[in-house]
Design a protein that fits this description.
7 helices, Nuclear Transport Factor 2, Chain: A, three-stranded antiparallel β-sheet, alpha+beta, about 15% strand
């Protein structure tokens, strides 16, 4: 049932303003009259706008009342209350509930949670060496509490959906996955089927858990793609300023074995000077018969040779002589 209007209390506006001015630090902080609200039987709240700095939208509220059949208003309470447009702080949350991942810094300690669903009791030694060895040595369960299936699933979901999973920008731009990288360190247990640890100091994920289908630009088996160049490929460089001297073994046909006439004697030495390349070919077959090549003219000016004469005809060191030396030809006539 709604309270009826009270004329005596509604007319107590001046009394309510005096109380509001007395409550405010500065009389100028009390603004215009905003009206009265019938809160209960013989209980009315008068509201005034607040002009105080930092309290925009707040209202000075003075509540007045009277006794039954009374004709005088009495002040019950006065306070500054937020209005519809007031700027309010967020609802208070306990400290243990305000913490978020990453808020714990050096020296901070989290409160103990005995009923943490992410943990479960660890392994209690049973006396059986075989069972205790597997649980303690291989699975590392010799702790008061270990990770429960709930905690393991939450960690896997968080890691896989995070910045070190397959959907991160670096993984999408990489050319190969972490599963084929040489810097991948496997993880034991059920999480090792999906995750590993990066051990590459050049990777942005060095020392962090990454998914096997994650990737980055520091993969051990990838290389930089060479961009095409508009410049033509350079020609090979030939060093023409250096001269390499090659000594050729001169071979002479002995007089008894030679049956050729004077015109055919120089032909065995002709093959040693035929090549026109800077490095002449050394002939190692001294007694080969010259092939008849009538189209090739005899060479009359061979390249100078610095090698001494063959051992069959020892001669003093003299300047190189032309190939057409007549001495071997006239030797049979003597």
């Amino acid at each position: 049932m709604a309270a009826t209007k009270d004329a005596v209390l509604e007319r107590a506006v001046d009394l309510a303003r005096e109380v509001a001015v007395e409550l405010a630090e500065d009389p100028a902080d009390v603004g215009e009259y905003l009206g009265a609200v019938q809160e209960a039987e013989r209980l009315v709240a008068h509201r005034f706008a607040s002009l105080a700095r930092g309290y925009r939208g707040w209202e000075w509220t003075v509540t007045v009342a009277r006794v039954p059949r009374g004709r005088v208003a009495t002040v019950c309470e006065a306070e500054l209350l937020p209005g519809a447009d007031a700027i309010l702080a967020k609802a208070w949350v306990p400290w243990s509930q305000r913490l978020r991942p990453g808020d714990v810094g050096p020296g901070d300690v989290l409160p103990f949670r005995p009923d943490d669903p992410r943990l479960e009791p660890g392994w209690t030694p049973t006396g059986d060496d075989e069972q205790d060895g597997v649980a303690i040595d291989e699975l590392a369960l010799a702790r008061v509490r270990v990770l429960s299936p709930v905690g393991r699933e939450e960690a896997a979901e968080r890691w896989y959906r995070g910045s070190r999973g397959p959907t991160s920008p670096g993984a999408l731009a990489s050319a190969a996955a972490c599963a084929t990288c040489g810097f991948m360190v496997p993880v034991q247990g059920a999480l090792g089927q999906v995750f590993a640890v990066c051990a590459n100091e050049w990777s942005p994920d060095d020392g962090r858990v990454v998914s096997l289908d994650h990737g980055c630009g520091a993969h051990s088996e990838t290389d930089v793609e060479q961009p095409p160049s508009e410049w033509p490929a350079p020609d090979p460089l030939i060093d023409e300023s250096a001269l390499e001297v090659v000594e050729l073994a001169r071979t002479h046909v002995s007089a008894p074995e030679s049956a050729a006439g004077p015109e055919q004697a120089p032909e065995p030495e002709q093959e040693a000077v035929l090549p026109t390349e800077p490095e002449a070919v050394v002939s190692t077959e001294p007694d080969l018969e010259p092939e008849p090549e009538p189209e090739v003219a005899p060479v009359t000016e061979p390249e100078p040779e610095t090698q001494p004469e063959p051992q069959t005809e020892p001669e003093p060191a003299t300047p190189p002589e032309p190939v057409t030396d007549p001495e071997p030809v006239t030797e049979p006539e003597s």
